[in-house]
Amino acid sequence: xxxxxxxxxxxxxIAKLSIVFVVSCGLAxxxxxxxxxxxxxxxVTLEASDMCSFCRMSISExxxxxxxxxxxxxxxxxxxxxxxxNYIKLKKNNASIAATFVMxxxxxxxxxxxxxxxxxxxxxxxxxNGGIVAFSDQSPAQAAAAKYNGTTLRFADVTK
Length: 160
What we know:
Elements: H1 2-36, E1 66-70, E2 75-78, H2 81-91, E3 97-103, E4 110-112, E5 117-120, E6 132-135, H3 138-147, E7 151-153, H4 155-158
Antiparallel strand pairs: 1-2, 1-3, 3-4, 5-6, 5-7
């Protein structure tokens, strides 16, 4: 009888340890998966002392600015959308880019570059003569294209 009690006690302890192990593994898995989720990348505020990461000029006119944020969280700021596109073209390894942002020409607010509507025109006097401005909506982009004899584009067209 004593052997049966010991065996029963042993089985109970093993069952409880198994439950603790399974719960611990489940919690560990949840923590790992939660940390694997893609974090939202936000644009960095422009400071008066900021210099363009491509041409090294000061960023003096906010309406033409752009940014690239890499996977390490480092911000590369640009005084002209053209400088950003040149930077992206020369970089070759776009896998290290976490996000790109451009400034809305009218509102002077950051937009995700892939969501923006662009206008290219030689009549825009951008800091490095890139001649490209961005808008959050298609309607003002089309109006600007008509007013400045420009072409409307999307991000893929701008970075070709």
